[in-house]
Amino acid sequence: MAKIRFRGVHLDFHTSPLIPDVGADFDAEEFARTLKEAHVDSINIFSKCHHGYCYYPTKVGTPHPSLKRDLLGEMVEALHRYDIRCVVYTSVAWDELAASTHPEWRQVDQEGKFIGRGPLESKGWQYLCLNAQEYIDYVCAQVEEVLTLYDVDGIWYDIIVQHSSGCFCHNCQKSMRAKGLHIDSREDRLVHNLEVERKAMARLYGVVKRKKPDALVVFNSRMRLQSNPNKGIRPEQEYMTHFEIESLPTGGWGYLHFPVFARYCAPLGKEIVGQTGRFHISWGDFGGLKGRAALEYECFRSLALGAKCSVGDQLHPRGKLDSATYKLIGSVYAQVKEKEPWCHDAELQADIGVLVCEETEGPIPLFGIGKAVGQDSDEGATLLLTELKHQFHLIDRESDFSRYSLIVAPDRVLFDEELTQKVRGFLRRGGALLLTHESGLDPEKRDFALAELGLQYLGPSPFEREFVRIHESFDSLDPSYDYVLYERGSKVKLKGAGEVLGKAVHPYFNRTWETFCSHRQTPPAYLTDEPVIVQVGQVIYISHPLFAMYRKWGYPVYRLILQECLQRLLPNPLLRVSNFPIQGEATVLKREDQLVLHLLYYPMGSKGRIDMVEDCIPITGVEVALRTPFSPKEVRTVPELENLSFEYDGKYVYFVVPQVKGHQMVAIGL
User: Fold this and answer.
1) Can you tell me whether residue 268 is helix, strand or coil?
2) CA dist list (Å): 667 to 123, 351, 516, 597, 632
3) Start and end of every Beta-galactosidase trimerisation domain (predicted)?
4) How far apart are CA 295 and CA 250, in angstroms?
5) For the chain, how many structural domains are there in total?
6) Within this chain, do residues 591 and 488 fall inside the same structural domain, yes or no?
7) Residue of 527, 477, 521, 471 lying closest to 500 (CA atoms)
8) What long-range pairs does 563-569 form, CB within 8 A, spacing at least 24?
9) Tens digit of each residue's pLDDT (9 = 90 or more) over 209-252
10) pLDDT digits (tens, 9 = 90+) for 473-485
11) Does a structural domain hold residue 2?
């Protein structure tokens, strides 16, 4: 199978049957030439959209009623003539036409109502059930037809999901009972969801590979973090030729979504594509065009995290690409093309592994949009470690811990016997561990699973908000000040030897309708001996949900606390960067005989309900210390090929990057 290309476009074409002139202005030569001039080298084009209509002369499905040409076929022929790879999109669980003509294929909620868009609603889509075998037969037949008619490079399946509440259609009720699952159990419904989704994926993958073994296969809407790897994407890798991470920052995913999933996917070993969009907001945003600085940041950040780029667009119903859109994409992809030689086969390096947070009861957001329980902790860890310029992966309990010097278990990672033994072995081999809040407790939350820590769990803190007084050894914080902890933490007792680095300061009382003082939390009353931060050997425990608190409240003190703890646990990190803004990002990738440092800085601010990137502000004199086992042969900026002077002390190579204007790469030859 060919390597994934770097400069992709995902071209939506969800087109109402009421549109009268579909494809009327399409010119295949102009279409392909516009993409080529914008430096696009791969594209996802469409066979069937969410409305359920096809854009080629199908005998299986239903052509769009106003289409008078083989739009898909003309695209494929012209794209290949310009050496642009084309993968064909088809919508699965959203198909308005199939849902309207075959209501027996619909997903059903526990009240017996159809899931998705209602009869008088204009927002959303009707859900088809992946357990409706006649419908899956129909999708398979459509895909086989496309692969027979056209020499395409792959199939891109969208919306491979059962609704997170579970499906109560007659097919699902029947199969759940046959498997001994209880339809009134949410856990059983989620188990059944996974079985149904993965069975459909196996069929849909098989129909492609039997017809074209070297084809690319993508299943969208599968990205999710699970502390139990069997519930996540790890077992689904066999159905994916690579990972594509749909993540439009202004479309509900946010700017932290992509790095979370890129850092989780990186150690799994498959190629990664980061999919953003050209839209100001999200999909279907006709007339909405983001600024160049934002698109640069999103594409260059993909490169910095070891991924390829894809930009989402939507073709106008008449079939003509917007010149302004491809002028924008071309201005960014011209730069990506120059950077590519130092991005091929580049692996994201890490000396810290961050265990994904424990899932708990609660709503599961679809497609990564919305907040899952635990997501604040995963995103908070990603944000904090990025701001501190540390190199890290997100991992699960099946990951290889030996790759890391430090394991971080943020806020709510419960330790069963298997994980306890794995962590114990990691510590025995010289690794370090950082635990916060409920992490490290046994699954029943009775006590800490690692008894050798000498910590006793006494339950949740009785205070909604309390304070911490920091040990004087924390140079960046004032040991006389009582810093607020904005979320309820855990109450613990130190039974054995250990160094208390922060003690709890209790308020006078919790804030209630009867007991309150001033505008917010009650002020601190008295210092206690209760540990908030404690170090036992190579383990540091923090009693409050530091990572979720930072994601929610953004209190810089929490970053300073983490920084002080990491200096103790990881005194020789892979990378140190100074004279670079907090929002600046730094990653290290390894390829062939060189390390490639990515430095990225685009300031971000909020407008309305979305985060905005609008400026590219140069930063000069960025100081770098990179740990390497031996002295480099050369250090130079790329693609500019400017040699930088450097020093090597036997452990670190030191150099100064003269300027970072948005994104700067530095190649360190080994």
Assistant:
1) helix
2) 48, 19, 58, 6, 10
3) 388-543
4) 11
5) 3
6) no
7) 471
8) 563/388, 563/476, 564/473, 564/474, 564/475, 564/476, 564/477, 564/501, 565/434, 565/501, 565/533, 565/540, 566/388, 566/390, 566/406, 566/434, 568/535, 568/540, 569/406, 569/432, 569/433, 569/434, 569/538, 569/540
9) 999 999 999 999 999 988 888 999 999 999 999 999 999 999 99
10) 999 999 999 999 9
11) no
Over the stretch 24-66, which tens digit does the pLDDT of each residue have?
999 999 999 999 999 999 999 999 999 999 999 999 999 999 9
Nearest to 505 by CA among 539, 533, 477: 533
Q: Are 402 and 429 in contact (CB under 8 A)?
A: yes
529: part of which helix (H) or strand (E)? Answer: strand 524-536
Count of C-beta atoms within a 10 Å radius of residue 371: 13
Parallel/antiparallel/unpaired status of strands 85-91 and 154-158: parallel
What's the pLDDT tens digit per position in 114-169?
A: 999 999 999 999 999 999 999 999 999 999 999 999 999 999 999 999 999 999 99
**352: number of Cβ within 10 Å:** 25
Query: Mean pLDDT for the chain?
Result: 96
**Cα angle 357, 360, 365; round to 5:** 85
Has residue 70 been placed in a domain?
A: yes
List the CATH number of the domain containing 586. 2.60.40.1180
Of 604, 627, 520, 591, residue with least CA distance to 301? 604
pLDDT category, 374, cuts 50, 70, 90? low
List the CATH number of the domain containing 298: 3.20.20.80
Q: Are residues 340 and 202 in the same domain?
A: yes
Largest CA distance in the chain: 79
- Structural domain span for residue 547: 352-569
